Predict the structure.
Amino acid sequence: MTSLYAKWAQGLKRIIFQKGMLLITFRCPVFGHSRPARTGSMQLRADALLGAIFVITRLFFIVVVVVVPSVYAHIAFWHPSMWGFNVTDKDPAYSYDNRPVVPLARMTFNEWWFHNHLRYPPHPNDVFELPAGKAAVAELGCNKGATTWWNSSEGGDVRQGDWPCPRSTSVQFHTTGIDDVKGCALAIVYESDVSKIKPEDFTVFSVNQTCVWHRFTTFQVPADMPACPGGKCTCAWFWIHSPDSGSEQMYMNAFQCTVAGSKHDAPALMKPQVARRCGADPEHGITHPTPSNCTHGAKQPLYWLQDEGNNMFEDYMGPPFYNDLYDFKDGAQNDIFMTNTKNAVQSQKRDVYQPSRFSRFWGNELHASRR
């Protein structure tokens, strides 16, 4: 049933958003933002009708999916080094379900930052190791019971090999198929005191463009990664899924990490800057990449679709991704280091750069989120 919905929704979205132009004007939680209409009240009414059909049918499929049993939905990074590792849907500290797998959308800064798990830090000795120049293997799952740490989950052992969502289809993690995955990322801050960390401090250092298809997901670590001060850094896993399967959100799970095997003369990281949409995007009528619009070098994670703290202002139906669309290459991000004087000068110039809030889809300036 969910696969039927995904196919139907994809087709209708392409009708409504053909050539990247949204025509309706009303504000709707499915579409995310209000947009200016083209001239003509007849066209406006027709477009509004399409939007209403989309909303009603989507709600119908949501109800069906809820009624038809499904073991788990959504996905998270799992490791004892993470904040909120043992948070369940019955945690009295929250008035809402704040399990690590719960997606983040339309939230205040405190609600989405570190997934609002700062009150549940990991044990000081639980640290995720990042081997410089080698691969780090993370476990992604729709429930902790699908991972190595199933014995501390509320549902017991439900592992199903390398599949992240046991007894469920890929629609449960917002993916219609392997060709629909959009990539995820690991980012790092060379600071262990989380009270000192700001969103713009995180630097994306590794991307896996087939994420989240596998439970065991490999992240290549750059060989030049410097050692963590005091042996401990702060990392986070980030993911934004395709708009073809389910409502849009972003995901963030933070964890303690350390870099192993660093070179004694490893260079420092550049100051990370806001990524720009610059790759080919055929679904929105953009057939060729625009390299001149790329942010080269160290980039921040994609903070998107929240009530506060966004650095991405793309529309609901044009989400940002951790792939070539934003110049996040598959594997280690080897261009994030201060390797020479030229890089240092460029980093300082970008320090005063203000990110564009212009949507290349809608042709109008988007409103900035509240800080």
